Amino acid sequence: MSIRTIKDLAPAEVRGKRALVRVDFNVPLDERGGVADDTRIRAALPTIRALQKAGARVVLCSHLGRPKGKPDPKYTLAPVAAALGALLGGGSAVRFVPHVTGAEAEAATRALKDGEVCLLENTRFEAGEEKNDEALAKAFARLGDLYVNDAFGAAHRAHASTEGVARRLRPAVAGLLMQRELEYLGGALEKPQRPFIAILGGSKISGKIDVIEALLPKVDGILIGGAMACTFYKAMGFETGTSLVEPDRVEMAKELMDRAAFRLTIPHDATVAPGIAEGKKAHTVKRDAIPAGEAMLDIGPDSALSYARAIASAKTIIWNGPMGVFETPPFDEGTLAVAKAMAAATKRGATTIIGGGDSAAAVEAAGLADEMSHVSTGGGASLEFLEGKPLPGVTALDTTSTKGDA
Q1: Is 187 a residue whose pLDDT tops 90?
Q2: 192 cis-preceded (ω within 30 degrees of 0)
Q3: 192-386 maps to which CATH number?
Q4: Contact yes or no for 63/161 (Cβ under 8 A)
Q5: Which of helix, strand or coil describes residue 243?
Q6: pLDDT category, 404, cuts 50, 70, 90?
Q7: Active-site residue, selected from the candidate residues 144, 201, 357, 379
Q8: What number is the average pLDDT over the span 331-351?
């Protein structure tokens, strides 16, 4: 399915029109209520600037945190509006509207001039947002003359501001960030340059089982890391000590290994310690020699080298999930090794895709985010996309064969 984007809109569909843009400004705030990390705000700038240049009146909406369907000052988007204004520069002040919908919000959108920008209050201050309430979706539709979804990170949720409004406000198109996400992830799955490998980490196999199932027929290899490797170790009959293991998934892990054969690589060695806080006691063991009183907290150096060699030989690499407890040295070494190998692969011309979430945080922390082909802004959305699930916030948009009814 080919989704219409803002690039497909005729000038008359944009100039002087209110563009209701769903962005993903679910950013971390610091202790003083300011924006602690503006990565997601910066990711939306190309779409906002393109709409400004086209003469649109830009109405932005987003959720922030989990305010449970009612106003909560802790989750106001007011500081985000200030941060966005500073990033846009050039005198582009962002008007903050302390309402989500209703007469005041509608009046604020109609008061905008061509090229001006406003940001509505947190969509989750409305109880009907996460329920995809029809009345709320209609209220959102009254705030714009066209709809743009640029919030890939929220595209897997059928909410009033992502799916419901797109059914009621046309044209309904993708923004530039959404387009980039779909092109990179879709391109990797549909027409990858080979060899094509996936690297999957994290704590639980249950959270990645659907991804493994979906990717196995498409990839040339899957490299496993993180605590989820321990469930595979248990399936192999190895001692796992105090490592995180999902007993109810052991048989599934065994069946996966039998079916995948050489395409599924489990870490050869492990960095273990009595606990996360006892990094000074960390040491490396072979995967069949984890001590009974210790836990695997990272892949070992031999595995890191092996994975780096596999990455170096690949032309398309997707990575989702860290190799260990990357927030706590020395259990970050496996994740850093993979990040560095991915950066080197990008320089050699490979397509490297980071699937959001902790993997994105890891490459950002390593200062390597700009050295990847693409860093996804949506962990949950990218996982569901890789699983082959339809994303409600995408399927509700116009296709290129449908011009909408503006």
Answers
A1: no
A2: no
A3: 3.40.50.1260
A4: yes
A5: coil
A6: very low
A7: 357
A8: 96
Residues β-bridged to residue 374: 353
124 is catalytic: no
3-state secondary structure 12-76: HHHCCCEEEEECCCCCCECCCCCECCCHHHHHHHHHHHHHHHCCCEEEEECCCCCCCCCCCHHHC
Q: In angstroms, what CA-CA distances link 376 with 10, 74, 264, 360?
A: 28, 27, 24, 7
DSSP-assigned states of every residue in 275-302: -TT-GGG-EEEETT---TT-EEEEE-HH
- Cα(145)–Cα(172) distance, integer angstroms: 10
153 part of the active site: no
pLDDT in tens, 30-60: 888 889 989 899 999 999 999 999 999 999 9
> pTM to 2 decimals?
0.87
Residues 168, 204, 254, 315: which is the catalytic one?
Answer: 204
Annotation says 138 is catalytic: no
Query: pLDDT at position 361, please?
Result: 86
Q: Are 194 and 316 in contact (CB under 8 A)?
A: yes
Cα four-point dihedral sign 266, 267, 268, 274: negative
CA–CA separation, 175 and 343 (whole Å)? 27
CATH 3.40.50.1260 in the chain is located at: 6-179, 192-386
Catalytic residue among 22, 40, 180, 208: 40
pLDDT in tens, 272-292: 999 999 999 999 999 999 999
- DSSP helix/strand/coil, 121: coil
Q: Is 357 a catalytic residue?
A: yes
| Strand 351-354 relative to strand 146-149, pairing | unpaired
Contact of 174 with 196, CB cutoff 8 Å: no
Closest to 245 (Cα-Cα) out of 294, 290, 288, 205: 205
CA-to-CA distance for 23 and 161, rounded, in angstroms? Answer: 10
Class of domain 6-179: alpha beta
Per-residue pLDDT at 104 exceeds 70: yes
Q: How far apart are CA 167 and CA 325, in angstroms?
A: 42
